[in-house]
UniProtKB/TrEMBL annotation:
Residue ranges annotated for the Oxo-4-hydroxy-4-carboxy-5-ureidoimidazoline decarboxylase domain, each copy included: 8-157
Name assigned to this protein: 2-oxo-4-hydroxy-4-carboxy-5-ureidoimidazoline decarboxylase
Name of one Pfam family that matches: OHCU_decarbox
Pathway: Purine metabolism; urate degradation; (S)-allantoin from urate: step 3/3
Catalytic activity: 5-hydroxy-2-oxo-4-ureido-2,5-dihydro-1H-imidazole-5-carboxylate + H(+) = (S)-allantoin + CO2
Enzyme class, first EC level, given as a word: lyase
């Protein structure tokens, strides 16, 4: 589906798996589908953002589908390609530092560190991760929720672009 009109008119069964690649929360997928037709991309993104206010359990479930920052997804498919693109600024010589920082974060919070890495350098990601280690656990889940919402918005734009939703 190359554009918003295609998104609005596509069968829900066709969109559901693509939306789940954007944010793996069934309630969010259902809300985005239920809001169709959207008058504009901005209206779609606003609806996505409203629906992306997630419970702690939904945040934890959504995190499970993401690779650690600096690592490739083991799942393959569209979201693995998107994740690699989103993390492209993190690649390089920082691998060991990221691995160590990821481990400290996981030890502290019990889940992987998640950030919308598009446009961030590896150094920026490391600085963000270090600052977030200071958060109380409940506050950090809310930060992760916002990051998931940003990733979902970024990926929704890709769903509207037929070139990004094709297999490689």
């Amino acid at each position: 589906m190359p554009d918003l009109d295609g998104f609005n008119s596509a069968p829900a069964a066709e969109l559901r798996p693509l939306l789940a690649e954007c944010l793996a929360v069934p309630r969010w997928v259902d809300a985005v589908l239920a809001g169709r037709p959207y008058a504009s991309v901005d209206a779609l993104l606003a609806a996505s953002d409203r629906a992306a206010s997630l419970s702690d359990d939904e945040v934890r479930a959504a995190i499970a589908g993401h690779p650690r920052i600096g690592e490739k997804s083991a799942h393959g498919g569209v979201s693995a390609r998107w994740s690699a693109d989103e993390q492209s600024g993190v690649a390089g010589t920082l691998a060991e530092r990221l691995k160590s920082a990821n481990q400290a974060y996981e030890d502290r919070f019990g889940h992987i560190y998640l950030v919308c890495a598009t446009g961030l350098s590896g150094e920026q990601v490391l600085a963000d991760l270090a600052s977030r280690l200071e958060h109380p656990a409940d506050a950090e889940l809310r930060v992760v929720n916002r990051e998931l919402a940003e990733i979902a918005a970024l990926r929704l734009r890709k769903v509207l672009d037929r070139h990004d939703t094709r297999g490689s």
